[in-house]
Structure formats: C-alpha cells, structure tokens
Design brief:
This protein has 13 helices and 14 strands. The protein is an alpha/beta fold. It has two domains: about 130 residues, Rossmann fold (3-Layer(aba) Sandwich), CATH 3.40.50; about 210 residues, Rossmann fold (3-Layer(aba) Sandwich), CATH 3.40.50.180. The chain has a seven-stranded parallel β-sheet with strand order 8-9-7-6-12-13-14, with helices on both faces.
Length: about 350
C-alpha cells in the first residue's frame, strides 16, 4: 500500500518534532519533509510532491492564510491547519476552511501534550488518512460552495403548517462551508433548525456569528433551556451535546456535558436520538463529514416516520457520514447541497396528510 506522504509546515522546531514523532510509528504515513516558512514549503512541494500538508496559521515572512490562498489557486491539495484554540484562531481557521483547507486540529502546547498526547496523536493520524481519501476532483467543491452563497437569494416560503416542526442537521469535515451555504438561503419564517457541527468549544460561537452575519434567519450558539422558535438556527456549543426536549407543547434546547459519542462532543447521534419522541415532525439531515456519526440515529428516526436527507457524494467534500447513512438505508432521499434547503421548506409547508406521500421521494 502506498504511504501517505506528509509535509509539515511550521515555524516552531518543537511543533515540527512533535508532529513527526506522532506520525513516526504509523506504517501508512511517511513524513517526507518539513518547512519553517511558506517559502521553503513552496519549493519542497514542487520537489517532493506531498499528498497532505499540515500547516501552521501564524508564520513569519508569509502567514498561513496567504500561503493557503496561493496554494489553492495554483496547486489545490489536502491541507490540515494547526490552529490555536482562541477567538482569533477560530476566525483565522474558519477563513482557512473557506479558502479550501480540508480540516484543522488544535495546535499542541507542552501543557496540553502532558495529558492529551495520545488523543492528539490519534486525531492527527485519523485526519491525515481521511484527507488522503478525498477525491482530488472534490477540491472543486470550494468554488461550488462559494457559488451557493455568492449573490444568494432566500427561498420563498409560505410558512410551516405543523406545530413544532423542526430540522436537525449534522455535519463535520467540509460542513462549515456547506452549512453556511444552506442556512443563507433560508427565509426569516423558516422552520427552526438545530445543528451539530464537529467543532471545538472556542470555535462554535464564532461559527454561529459568522453564519448569522450572512443570513436572514437568526443564528446563535444554543443555550441550555432556550425555547426553540421559527426563523432561528441553534448551533451546538463545541464542548457539549445538544438535545431537543419537548415540554408544555413547545421545544427547548438542552445541553449535556457527558461522555463523547462516536469520538465527538457534540455528537450528531445524541441530537438525533433526542428527537425520537417527535420523529414524525422531524427532518434530519446529514451533510459532508468524516466518520459515521449520525448514521444510526438517522436510521432510528426514519423508522419512526421522520424525513431523512443525506447530501450526495458528488457535492460532499467527504462522504463519510452521509455515506454511512446510505449504507444503512437510513435516508428517505439523497440530494445535492444546493437542493437541500428548498426540499426542507417544501416538506415543512405540507399538512400532516400531504407529507405522507412526500416521504416516498428519491
């Protein structure tokens, strides 16, 4: 089996050594070079032809964002950003994902490594292997996603016909851009949306704020006990599971600081499982992402009468989560990214009688 050739780009000798050490014992990965700045990296990319880059955001001579923008214009390839878990780091990382970086991982420091080295090591290996599996043609997705949000118009919508109708969306790798495009097309009277995006604690609030700035619906980070209302989108905090609770004829957000599920907190399966009691009033959606989080929860909801939608392979950056749901036949329909929002609204405006025939779509 061909080894995955990795180039490590970071101005810190310590960080480069940590990354190399974490990858040294993996038979599927080979670190073929290291660069202390983008100019050295540029020459090594030409010479060594790596499969995957790990890229520091903050570097001398040329910052990681400028380098990434040039790279994606001239030679698109899989890039994993090493990001600081700060508000500034969140903004820069989200910008990097907009430019075409596939994923990111928290940049390790000495204190973190003492207690979390094994976790960092396994996550780094996992993400490198998953990024290597992305079809090169899918890098065109970045421009496709931008076309979804450039000059976007919200869909027309006559209103929700059923009380407490709700849309639950799960996403991971590639999801920040996919979600931004989808949410930007929702009208102000759209059914409420709850979202689990695999993202760190310090990133989720900034992600919600950035989406809110580009949308007519109100996008916010979910709060415990918050009443769920029409025209609102609730994003799970990056360190807590998000559930939906029905009480007194209304729906509420509930946050839970429990163990990880499917390697994640928040986890999509936790959100989907919390909706089983009101499954007939639910639309569950799985967008692009690594792994299988949400697949089993989606199947459970489908069997209880929910409409379940997966993003198709052609428009998914990584068809892991929706692909896993597809294998389980957990979906009632499979759609391209630019059709999902319109489908959500078409189903939301149906009466209880009308929606039964709608679920037979393919």
């Amino acid at each position: 089996m061909k080894k995955i050739r990795v180039l490590v780009i970071d101005d810190s000798t310590v960080i480069r050594e940590i990354v190399k050490e974490c990858l040294a014992d993996d038979e599927q990965i080979e670190v073929i070079g290291e660069a202390e700045d983008p100019f050295v990296a540029r020459e090594l990319i030409k010479e060594l032809q790596p499969d995957v880059l790990t890229l520091d955001i903050e570097m001398p001579k040329m910052d990681g964002i400028t380098f990434l923008a040039n790279l994606m214009r001239l030679r698109p390839m899989p890039v994993i950003m090493l990001s600081t878990l700060t508000t500034k780091g969140a903004d820069i990382t989200l910008e990097a994902l907009e430019l075409g970086a596939l994923d990111f991982i928290a940049k390790p420091n000495f204190e973190h490594l003492i207690t979390h080295k094994d976790s960092f090591k396994s996550t780094l290996k996992y993400k490198i292997k998953q990024c290597f599996l992305v079809d090169q043609k899918n890098f065109q997705l970045t421009n496709a996603l931008k076309s979804v949000t450039t000059g976007v118009r919200t869909h027309s919508f006559t209103g929700v016909k059923r009380n407490n109708h709700i849309v639950a969306i799960g996403a991971s790798t590639g999801g920040t851009e996919a979600l931004k495009g989808l949410v930007a097309t929702l009208p102000e009277n759209a059914p409420p949306v709850v979202i689990v995006q695999h993202i760190p604690e310090t990133f989720s609030l900034r992600f919600a704020e950035r989406m809110n700035a580009k949308s007519v619906v109100t996008v916010q980070e979910a709060q415990h006990g918050q009443k769920i209302k029409l025209g609102n989108v609730y994003v799970a905090p990056g360190d807590q599971h998000l559930k939906v609770i029905a009480k007194g004829g209304s729906l509420f957000c509930a946050l839970e600081n429990s163990e990880r599920v499917n390697r994640h907190k928040p986890a999509v399966d936790v959100l989907f499982d919390s909706l089983q009691e009101i499954a007939g009033n639910v639309q569950a959606v799985l967008l692009t992402g690594m792994g299988n989080d949400g697949a089993q929860g989606m199947l459970n909801l489908k069997e209880l009468g929910a409409r379940t939608v997966i993003q198709d392979k052609a428009t998914s950056l990584v068809w892991g989560m929706p692909g896993s749901a597809h294998k389980l036949n957990a979906h009632t329909c499979e759609m391209s990214l630019n059709k999902i929002a319109k489908g959500i609204l078409a189903y939301a405006k149906l009466s209880k009688v009308e929606m039964k025939g709608f679920l037979n779509e393919r």
